[in-house]
Structures
1.
Amino acid sequence: MIRDDLTGRRFGKLTVIKELGGGRILCRCECGREKEFNKSNVKRGLARSCGSCVRKHTRRDLIKDVTGQRFGKLVVLKELGYRRVLCRCDCGNVKEINKSHLLNGDIISCGCELKKTAIKSREPKLYKGTDINKITTSAATSRSSTGIRGVSYSKRRGKYRANIGFRGQKFELGYFDTIEEAAKARKAAEERLYKPLIEEWRDKNAGQQKKGK
């Protein structure tokens, strides 16, 4: 199972059609072209089209003053030169934007729309600010070198390291001589931190289902 699988999700003109692993994804653009992208760049809105179908702006387009014009949620406040403009978003945030991206329609907000989409997509999985799906899976991430979630190997120390993340914090569980010891420490931490919240979430869902009958 791939952590944060984006398959089927749309970002600008791009639709993710496959997770490639190693932080790479395959996308299909509206123009029909398929292209490999850095996953992080797509999520952050830095890549919103294949790049080939984007309308090429003439020098005249780029030097034309667009101060006061609206592009999506952005209103241009000032021309900064070097194909950059200063914009105010409807959310109130002021941000410097690449003028070509603005004219292409690749950027339509300061980034607040992307944040709203990301939060909305996670809402069904969140309980008290925690992604339940994430803490109930035992599958290691694609970057894991040991195949055990929360356990890595330190070449410098020649030991196995265990850690666990919970509610925005990372807890170091120590270094161990064997992978079995590290895995055991990780499992104990899951029992202590994850299990009570998972059981509470399940009890709440069960109660809601009974009410709905």
2.
Amino acid sequence: MTSHNFLYRYPPLMGGILKKRYKRFLADIQLDTGELITAHCANTGPMLGLCSIDSRVMVSKSDNPKRKLAYTWEMIAVGEENPVWVGINTALPNKIVKSALENQLISELAGQYTQVKSEVKFGHDGKSRIDFVLSGGETDIYVEVKNTTLAENGVALFPDTETTRGQKHLQELINLPSGVKRVMLYFIARSDCKVFGVGSKFDRTYGKLFDEAREKGVIILPCRFDITPEGVIYLGSSMLLEN
């Protein structure tokens, strides 16, 4: 795989074994060197299916002396027969999606905009923010991104827990004027899911809002990514499982 295939390249990573995840933000990891370290976990959710003790993990190390924890937990291998890497660093999806948008790689949106703006304020009070606004085309395109890590029987699911923040973001997309294009993009941080479905059993309110959003024209766009210790590759969109 050549470097131009990667939307994002990881810094040199260190391998290890997960020993414990606790207090949402912390994970104890035994590096291949034998050293036991505590790494920062950027994903504060339950991470269902992603915290099995003694699983293979990869971490990055920062040289920033101001950081409380030098190490960041980047990914974990899941599955016994054909293990797949799952990206768990929630600080990365927006950065990677921005690169994909700037390079017009997402075919469902490509050619419909010329500018990509991040973290744009909107709404009557200006207190709401949307991850991206794509402009310069026939109409502005509002894009919200959600990191998706849970898989059940080959289907990627979001959410994996009750999420009032996620509910709010869906409602905001629903409330946007019909004159703009509205997109909920699910960043599937694993390569083994060709189908996406809404996790209504984890959050019924989110499931109802998801259905309402589709009925009112919000575009549901699940995007698959291959997470490797070298970098992240865009695989294209997933099929949508009818709710």
